[in-house]
Amino acid sequence: MAAHVHGLDVRSWRGHMDGVVTFAHASLAAPLHFEQRPESIPTDGDADGTFRRIWPASLSFGAHLASCPDLVRGKSVVELGAGSGVAGILCAAFGAEQAWLTDLPAALPLIESNVARNERVATRCTAWPCRWGEDADIAALLEQAGVPAFDVIVASELVYKQRPSTFAALVDTMLALGHETSRVLVVYEFRDELFDDLVFFERMLTHYDVEVIPLRSAGTGAPAAASRADEGECEEFLYVYVPHNVCLLYTSDAADEEDS
Predict the structure, then answer these.
(1) Residue spans of beta strands (DSSP E) within 95-143
(2) 227: phi > 0 → left, psi -120 to 50 → alpha, else beta; which?
(3) Which residues pair with 152 in a beta bridge?
(4) Contact 23, 61 (CB under 8 A)
(5) How many helices and strands, by DSSP H and E, does the chain display?
(6) Are the C-beta atoms of 23 and 117 separated by less than 8 Å?
(7) Under 8 Å CB-to-CB from 146, ≥6 apart: which residues?
(8) Are the beta carbons of 238 and 64 closer than 8 angstroms?
(9) Per-residue pLDDT of the chain in tens (260 residues, 90 and over written 9)
(10) In angstroms, rounded to a whole number, what is the distance separating the alpha carbons of residues 142 and 138?
(11) Residue 240's beta-bridge partner residues?
């Protein structure tokens, strides 16, 4: 059963307007609703404004979770750079025990608003500030969450033309928040500046093994995504990382069965 997204034209940069996107799937008791506010929230000096937009690959990630909920079911989850909170809320909807949605302080009001509008999962979602590479922020997050480490770390649409120092801080934060068998789920859309992003992927491979899953069966109802899937092309991927010497237990069999 495919997931469906209704509302804004989330595939188009020019289509990013204030409004609500609805995500529905047969396995969910009720649809989820996510607001973006690119036209109405002023940016602070410590944020570039991208957090205010809903990015399409996060919705494709949600559709994948609908087919493979064991990725997050029953697990403690932290989303880094949560933005509007879409990916983390979707993790909670598909069974995460707790989902901590972290970002810079400027992003938290939008995250909190989206958590509140999804009452069925709100008690399992918490918005919390966390700056990458800041030991004090990381320690405070773990203390507040009441866990020594998180089972799943989510980074959705974060890897795009960041400075090497920013990528280094992001990877260091992932390492600090995880344990010896944690999974890191990186949702990535290929764009024009792939070379700039290789710094991140190369750094990840010094610490993790990876399985790459195409998100071509997202079923989000967006024409551009559907046309690429029909043509056998894919621009959105899920990178499933586990620490070295840990067996990659994840398999996309459920998604493969749905495709067939």
Answers:
(1) 98-103, 125-129
(2) alpha
(3) 77, 183
(4) no
(5) 9, 10
(6) no
(7) none
(8) yes
(9) 667 776 655 554 444 556 888 999 999 999 999 988 765 545 554 445 566 678 788 999 999 999 999 999 999 999 999 999 999 999 999 999 999 999 999 889 999 999 999 999 999 999 999 999 999 999 999 999 999 999 999 999 998 878 999 999 999 999 999 999 999 999 998 876 677 899 999 999 999 999 999 996 444 443 333 334 344 456 899 999 999 977 655 544 444 444 44
(10) 6
(11) 185, 211
d(CA 63, CA 31): 13
Longest dimension (CA), the chain: 48
Task: List, in sequence order, every beta strand (DSSP E) within 27-161.
Answer: 32-36, 76-80, 98-103, 125-129, 150-156
Instruction: Give CA–CA dist 204/155, Å, rounded.
Output: 13
177: which 2 tokens?
């928040």
Which amino acid, one-letter code, is at 236?
E
Q: Write down the H helix ranges in 146-242.
A: 164-177, 194-205, 223-230
Amino acid at 230: D
Give the pair of three-digit tokens for residue 243. Answer: 């620490």
